[in-house]
Design goal:
Order of helices and strands: EEHEHHE
Largest sheet: 4 strands, antiparallel
Radius of gyration: 14 Å
Shape: globular
Distance between the termini: 10 Å
Strand order of the largest sheet: 2-1-4-3
Structural class: alpha+beta
Number of strands: 4
Strand content: 15-25%
Length: 102
């Protein structure tokens, strides 16, 4: 499943479903698809997402050190995965527009 986030102030962002649902939960949303955040609630959702990403970073780094799967590819951190969504939410907050996903 893919989830696409949209708002009038930024280009659409598409994420894999499991990643998108995790980001939605970090923002304080139930994780239902489709869904929306009203313009007045976007700044609070953005703050919750940033805070959750900051809180999760040390724990994930320790888990990665303990787990060596032998893969040549480095893992993608939640902070890097969240960056496009953070930019979309920042633009939506600045322009005071709703954010939707489907």
């Amino acid at each position: 499943m893919l989830v696409t986030f949209t708002c009038k102030a930024y280009a659409d962002i598409t994420m894999f479903g499991d990643i998108a649902l995790g980001m939605l939960r970090m923002m304080g949303h139930s994780g239902t698809v489709p869904g929306a955040i009203l313009a007045e609630d976007v700044p609070a959702a953005l703050d919750r997402l940033k805070h959750a990403i900051d809180e999760a970073a040390p724990a994930r780094n320790e888990a990665r050190k303990a787990e060596d799967d032998g893969s040549d590819e480095p893992p993608v951190s939640p902070a890097h995965r969240a960056l496009p969504l953070i930019e979309l939410l920042t633009a939506a907050a600045r322009e005071k527009c709703d954010v939707m996903w489907k």
